[in-house]
Amino acid sequence: MKFNKKLIAGAILAATASFTLSAQAEGVNKITGAGSSFAYPIISKWASEYKTEKGVEVNYQSVGSGAGIKQIIAKTVDFGASDDPMTVADLEKNGLTQWPLIMGGIVPVANIPGSKQGEFVISGPVLADIMMGKITKWNDPALEKLNPGKKLPNMQITVVHRSDASGTTAIFTNYLSKVSPEWKEKVGEGKTVNWLSKGNLGGKGNEGVASYTDRIKGAIGYVEYAYALQNKLPYMDMINSAGKRVAPTMENFGAAAANADWKSAPAFRVVLTDQPGDDSWPITGSTFAIVHTNPENPGNVKAVLDFFKWSMEHGQKAAEELHYIPIPANVAKLIETSWSENIKLK
Amino acid sequence: MSATEKDIKVHLHTQSAGVIWDKVFKGTAFAFAAMVLIVMLAIMVMLFKEAWPTFAHFGFSFLYTSEWDVVNDKFGALVPIVGTLVTSLIAVLIGVPVSFGIAIFISLMAPSWLKRPVGIAIELLAAVPSIIYGMWGLFYFAPWFANTIQPFMTDNLGGVPFIGQFFQGPPIGVSIFTAGFVLAIMIIPFIASIMRDMFDVVPTALKESAYAMGSTTWEVVWKVILPYTKAGVIGGIMLGLGRAMGETMAVAFVVGNSLELNTGLFYPGATIASTMANEFNEASGLHMSSLIALGFMLFVITFLVLSLAKWFLLRLEKSQQGDET
User: What ipTM was assigned to the predicted interfaces of this complex?
Assistant: First the structure.
C-alpha cells in the first residue's frame, strides 16, 4: 500500500517535471491581455484555437478599452486592446506602440412596429438630430423624405444608448461629430457622452441596448453588427459619405476598411467612420492592440506578436464567422513592418 | 493550612490571572472597536482626497447643477443625488408598511405552525443576490408594469394638478419608479425580520395585560408594542434605507441610466451607485474624481440621514418622558 502511494506520487512528479520542461523549451506558454469588450468574442475564439494549435494560452480580460490602456501602461498585462486609438503623443510618452487587430461595423437599429431589417434608411445628419432630441417622432418630414412611399408611424422616438463607457459609443459619436457640426458642438465624441434627447435610456453593454431596442416600441439604438444579427433586430440602411444607400454587410464594412489610408496614418491612427467610397459602410471601427516598445520581458511580447501574426494569417475564418472584418493582407504587411521598426526584442 | 485558607489563596490566584485576562480582553475589544472608526475615517479621507479636484474645480455648484458631460469635463451631481433620494424614498414608502404587516402577522397573528416557514422564507429572500432582483425587474416586472400599471397611473393621476407631473413618462417600464419598487422588494426582508425580532421581545405580560383590559389587536400594536420597540423599528427602517441608497446592481438594471433631470417618476434616471458602477472602469482625470466625489456625497447623505433618524428618536424619547411625568 505504502509502496503504491510512493509510486503514484513519483509518477505525478515526473509527469509535472516533464510538462514544465517541455513548456520551458518552447518559451512563454501564457500571455495576458485586457481591454476592449468589442473585440472580446474574436480574441477569445482565436485564443482557444491558438491553444489547441500551439499550446500557448492567451488570457484576455474584457474590462473595457480605457481600463485596457490603464493596465498596459501599468504593465500588469502583456498587451492592451482599445477601440479608441491612442494619440501618437500618448504612445510616445508611455513607450507604447499600437496596431489594428480587428475591424467591425456598428449599425443603427430601430423598433418601428412591423418593419423588416433594412427596410428603412437613415442619413448621418438625421441620425444625429434624433440622438440630440431634435427629431422626436418617427413620422418627422426628414425621415419621410429619406423613405419615400414607406409608412412611418406617428410614434415617439426613444433613444437607447450605452450606459457603460464604451468604445462602441466612441466610434458612433465620432461618426455623428463628423457628419453633424451641431452634434460636434453640443455633444462631441467620447466613450460616455451627454445624451440630450428627452427620456433617453441607457442599457448595459451591446446586449442591454439590443434588449431595450427589441422591447420598446419606437426605440432607436446602435449596436455591433453581430448583436443586431443574433437578436434579429431591424437595422437600418444608411446614406454614406458618397451619398449612396448602403446596407450593413461584411463587404461594405470591408470597403470602408479598404478605402482607409493606413499607410500615411502615424501609429495606424485611423478611425474608420465616414470613409469615402460608394460601398463604404459609414460607421465602421477597429480595435487596436497596444504593447510596450521596450518591454521588460521581451519573451512575452514576442509571444503576443506571434499570436497576432498567427491571427492575421489563420484567423480570418473565425473573424468572419463572428461577423468581424479581418485585417487585409496589405495592412498586415504594414503592421509587421511597424513591429520590426518599433519593438525591441533583443 | 486549613481548607478555607487554601480556598482563599486559590481564589486570589485565579482572580489576579482573571484581572490580567480581563485587561487583555478589554484592550482587544477596544482595538476592534477602534478599527471600525479608523476604517471609516480612512475611507472618508481617501474619498475626500481623490474627490478634491472636483470640489476645487466646481465648488458647491457640483451639488446643484445637473449637467454631466464627460466630453467637455463638466460635472454636476444633482441628477444622481436626486435619483438616489427619490428611489430610496419610494422604496421606504412602499417597503415599510408591507414589512410592518409581515412582522405583525408573524409575531402576533400567525398560527405557530406557520410562523417558522414564513420567517425562514423572509430570511431566504434577504439572501437572494441583488442581481437576481435586477434581472427579474428588467425582464419581468418592467415590461408588465409598462403595459398595465403605468398607463393606468398616468391616465388617472397624470391629470391631477401638481402631483400629476410625477406620473408622466414614456411607457418603457425602466424608470426611477421601477427602481424604487424593486428596491422596496429588496429591503422588505431586512426591515421585516428586524421588526419581527423586535416585536417578539415585547414582554408577554405587557401584551396580555393590554388584551385583558379589552384592547383590540390594533390597539395593542399601536399603543403597547410600537412604543416599546420604536428604537429598534426605526433602526430597522434605517438599515433598509441605507441598503436602498447604496444598492448598485439591481438599480443599474432597472433605473434606465439616463443622466437627465425630469420631474416624472416614469422617466429613466440614475442613482449615485448606478452611475459609479456604469462609468468607473473607463473614467480618468476629472471624470474619475467626480465619480469619487459622488461616492463621497453618498457617504455624506447616508450619514445625514442616519443622524436625522437618531435625532428624531431622541426627540421622541424626550417627548414621551415629558408625557409620563
Answer: 0.73
